[in-house]
Amino acid sequence: MSKRSLSIAEMTAQLQKPGPALRSQRVDKMTAPLAEMGMQVTLDQLRPYDHNPRTERNPRYDEIKESIRQVGLKHSPPITQRPGDDKFMISDGGNTRLAILNELYEETGDDRFYRFWCVYRPWVTEEQVLAGHLSENENRADLSWIEKALGVAELKRLLEEHEGEVLSQRELARRFSELGFSVSQSQISRMLYTVEHFWPTLPATLRSGIGQPQIKKLIAYREACLEIWKRCNSRQEADFSVAWHDVVSQFDYEEQTELPWSIVEDRLLGMLEDHSGAHLHTLDWCLKRVLEYRQRRQDIDDPEIWQPLQVEMERVRNPEAHPLKFYPPLPGEEDEPSKRERRPRQEVDTSEPLEFEPSGPSQSPPRTTDDQPTFSDENSYLRQELNALRAQNRKLLEGRQAAVASEESVLPINEHEQVTDQDSIAVLRSDDDLAIPEAEEEADLRTDEERINSLTLSVIDEPEGKRKLRHAVAAMHGGQAGDFQDFAVQSIPLMSAGPLTPVTDIWWVDAHVQTPKKLRYVIYRLAQSLGQWAGFPLSDTELYPAPLQLNQEEGLGYHLQPLSGDLEQDPAAQKVWQLLAALSGEVQPAYPSDISLIGDLLGTAGEAEHLPDEVLIRLFRLIRLVRVLRTQESTRGDS
After folding, report:
1. Does residue 77 sit in helix, strand or coil?
2. In whole angstroms, what is the distance from residue 44 CA to residue 427 CA?
3. Residue 35: what pLDDT?
4. N or C: which end of the chain has fewer CB within 10 A?
5. Which domains are present in the chain?
6. At a CB cut-off of 8 Å and minimum separation 6, what does 16 contact?
7. Burial class of residue 538 (count of CB atoms within 10 Å of its CB; 0-12, 13-18, 19+)
8. What b-and-e string marks burial along 169-186, b requiring 16 or more CB atoms within 10 Å of the CB?
9. Helix boundaries (H) for 109-178
10. Contact present, 548 and 555 (Cβ < 8 Å)
11. CA dist., res. 180 & res. 135, Å (int)
């Protein structure tokens, strides 16, 4: 049976029936692409990155705007889309161009500013996008220091939230590099330090574009003041932060790219003086020394820095036992006459005729009531001495002539002997043999200061206050401090004011230094001077430890790390390393170890570069202190 065909009316009725209900959700837009691709977008579909590290107007904004107005958008910004967001956003820099396109479209209505092609990049993470913006701006070098620092702090926060733990600065540098943003650990440290300590205090100055050199200097001052603060009292660092903020915030001004450092330093010293009670001169001394040592990357635990402050704090705690006049001297206070200052001797004019002859043995010069010879009395005394010597010379001459005459009458003499005796007689006849040679006479009549200056390599200008301090510290330890000016006229003076430890006397060791721990520290400093000449770094680097490490508990005060980097093949570095190792009884077989090593360094053999005089003096002093240390250790062992 054949199937009945539908009529036209029936077919029309079937077609007009409603279709099945739509069970799926309506889609108003396409999903974001899954791979990088080019796509055309409009200004309505695009927005700037909401965590853009740039917070200030781009200094090249007008220049970029005019370029886009003339030739259009030549470099389209990359875009991405955050999951769940209904708009695209800038991915790796380009927020300035997007703002300019919006302005130009509002001004002109030109469709080329409204619709343009971009490169779409799939979304990865929030950290990746922020690192992309930082890297792009870093390549163009148009971010201010504080903008970059705030961006680094935000990126650090995002990474730590993602990891669920606090990351070290070295780990942050590694993670940043993986994200395409290369920055060193030291830079990260300074940026985070800026955000933590300077951003709340100097916001206007930082926004004005203060640079990294000023930040480094500000960090150095804050760390130095904090170190002095801790050594003055036991107050918390939080108290220092408040005091620091109160002082430095007074210098926060707009359009300022350099701080008035002389005024800042004065205010900081005043702050330390108010909170510690120490004298301003002492604080200024410590601040300058700490800044100097940190710049050289030296250990700031050197007693030379802190002894004045320790004495000053003792005075603050017990003013009656330690009066202020002790150190430093007050302005206008008259110092006691120094025993090193001696009165120059009166010159004797030997060209004048002498008015009398000596009639007896030499007499002591006349004395005044205070048992001190006057200039006129000393002059007369010298004349008497000179006359006595001339009279004695005449007697010797007469006796010599008589002896020669008697020998000639008894024994024959050859021509050579005769000439010799006649020459001797001629010499004795001369009045010049009693006169003081010109050079010696000048040396005798020179002042002590002139004699000392002529015998020293380079002079150390030691302030009187510091000299008094050394004597006081030595007296507190039951000893006596030595003064170079006193020793210089009775021993061989060797002095060097080089970059590290000055040497004022090779042999003398102050009593307060004669403890194993202090001796080891001074030995370490002297060894550093040798190492510095050989190119040793004074502190650890990011890649290698310093060859010389301080050890005040045992040994000579230092222990050696293997040479690394360029120093590993440097002959001078190898010889100095081997010399320092030999002093402690150890050698490195791979380095020069034959006896010529000493000759090369001392300059007595070979043509290799040898130690300069100022370093050689320190080597002598180092050996002397090592022997003192060994003697003390053996004495303690026997007891």
Report:
1. coil
2. 116
3. 83
4. N
5. 37-198 (3.90.1530.10), 203-317 (no CATH), 347-446 (no CATH), 514-638 (no CATH)
6. none
7. middle
8. beebbebbeebebebebe
9. 126-140, 145-163, 169-178
10. no
11. 7
- CB 324 within 8 Å of CB 273: no
pLDDT tens for residues 6-27? 888 888 888 888 877 766 666 5
- Which candidate, 144, 286, 157, places its Cα nearest to that of 225? 286
Is residue 227 packed enough to be buried (19+ CB in 10 Å), middle (13-18) or exposed (0-12)? middle
Q: What is the mean pLDDT of residues 488-497?
A: 48
Q: What is the rounded CA–CA span in Å between residue 548 and residue 524?
A: 8
Over its C-alpha atoms, the chain yields an Rg (Å, rounded) of 43
How many residues appear in the chain?
639
Residues with Cβ < 8 Å from 181, sequence gap 6 or more? Answer: 131, 132, 134, 135, 138, 155
The answer, yes or no, to whether residue 106 has pLDDT greater than 50, is: yes
Q: Which residues have CB under 8 Å from 568's CB, separation 6+?
A: 562
Contacts 24+ apart (CB under 8 A), 561-568: 562/588, 566/535, 567/534, 567/535, 567/536
CA distance 29 to 395: 132
Q: pLDDT tens, 246-255?
A: 999 999 988 8
Residue 503 main-chain phi, psi, to 5 deg: -115, 115
pTM (two decimals): 0.50
Residue 123 pLDDT exceeds 70: yes
β-pair partners for 503:
496
Q: To 5 degrees, how large is the angle CA 619–CA 624–CA 627?
A: 125
Bridge-based pairing state of the strands 115-120 and 46-47: unpaired
Token readout for 440 is 């010696």
Half-sphere exposure of 292 (CA within 13 A, CB side): 11
Of 232, 252, 149, nearest in space to 192 by CA: 149
CA 347 to chain centroid, in Å, comes to: 49
AA identity, residue 443: A
> Does a cis peptide bond (omega within 30 degrees of 0) precede residue 493?
no
Supply the pLDDT for residue 430: 40
Question: Cα–Cα distance between 226 and 2 in angstroms, integer?
Answer: 107
Question: Token pair for residue 581?
Answer: 């190792």
Q: Are 158 and 196 in contact (CB under 8 A)?
A: no
481-504: average pLDDT: 57
Provide the CA 199 distance to its chain's centre, in angstroms.
Answer: 26
Q: Do residues 512 and 474 make contact, with C-beta atoms less than 8 angstroms apart?
A: yes
